[in-house]
Amino acid sequence: MGHVGLFVLSVLALIPLAWIIGEATEQIGEFTGPAIAGLLNATFGNAPELIISLFAVSGGLFEVVRGSLAGSVIGNLLLVLGCSLVAGGRGRIDRRTAYNTLSMVAVSIGLFAVATAAADADSGSGVPVVSVVVAGALFGTYVFVTVRSVRQEHRKHKEEGGTGDPDWSLTRAVVTLGLATLATVAVSEVLTGSVEAFGQAAGLSDAFVAAVIVAIAGNAAEHGGAVVIAARGNVLLASEIGLQSAAQVATGLIPAVVLLSLVVNPMALVFSPVEFLGMAVATAVPALLLVRGRSSRQRGIALCVTYAAVVAAFYALAG
Q: How would residue 285 be classed by pLDDT, with cut points 50, 70 and 90?
């Protein structure tokens, strides 16, 4: 079977997985509240990405790894959030959580710039010390903020009445989410491999393939789950998935890959100008559109159009 056939079959396989992930996340949200449910969804979704990134790092595919991780941040904040708002229409978004999350991403991007500048100025071989320091500081901050946020959200959820009206038990929901994620890993590997081959055959650069095609394909089921949840009217939870996933990649996953690469194949914490541009735009535009803490299809369309513009920039500057 050719790459096109594998691509089509993989996409079809992701459709039921997206529904299962969306259903499991929504059931977890009945027990924990949307913020913690979104965090769990992001964690299950990003764990395979960490494993895949480390395999790529061991093979020396640094450009692909950094491009796909930057593309994941961009895709979550623009494409996933945008599609969720389009599917869900009008609704409420937790403005405080959204701005806390976007602030974390913005700080991460600023520190990435510091590490990149230090790496450019360092003519020696190996990973600059600044890369390790920044990665360690970001990862430690992410763990601290996450633990504090989980405690606050758990307390808030209990004060608001605790458990909602779930159809599943919490154990069933978490196990289902985990199993669906494992299935997604297998399908995503096939999908990513076929898409990369297609991109290369089409004459696209590795940077474009990594930041756009691999970033979308590798998280398709997780992203689809957010859209499914939004279409059911739970825009609050759907928005949490996109925001939490972006923050987790920027402040947790990227630093973790850099730190773990030290024992696999050391990789510096550097990004290209177009990757910085994309992440900066992806952080600024949602901050402007979500200032009122309300969702709408118009805002969702604006986010999707912005994503298309960023993709065009990647094609022009990196392709």
A: very high
Tally helices (H) and strands (E) across the chain: 14, 2
Per the domain annotation, does 264 fall within a domain?
Answer: no
With tokens 């991109």, the residue in question is 199
60's torsion region: left (phi>0), alpha (psi -120 to 50) or beta? left
- Dihedral, 163, 164, 168, 174 alpha carbons, nearest 10: -50
Element (H, E) at 295: strand 294-295
Dist. CA 319–CA 315, nearest whole Å: 4
Torsion of CA 191, 315, 61, 48, to 10 degrees: -40
* Cα–Cα dist 20/256, whole Å: 28
What's the pLDDT score for residue 100? 86
Residue 66 falls within a domain, yes or no? yes
Q: Report if residue 36 sits inside a domain.
A: yes
* pLDDT surpassing 90 at residue 228: no
Domain CATH code at residue 22: 1.20.1420
DSSP state of 135: H
End-to-end CA separation in angstroms for the chain: 28
Q: Which domain holds residue 30?
A: 3-105+164-243+272-317
Q: Quick one: which of 28, 20, 15 has its CA closest to 244?
A: 28
The answer to the question of residue 140 being in a domain is: no
pLDDT value of residue 106: 95
Cα→Cα distances 319→46, 86, 196, Å? 26, 29, 14
User: Where is average pLDDT lowest: 61-65, 288-292, 315-319?
Assistant: 315-319
pTM: 0.82
Strand partners, 91: 295
**What's the domain count of the chain?**
1
Q: What is the pLDDT of residues 180-203, one digit of tens each?
A: 878 877 877 776 667 667 676 777
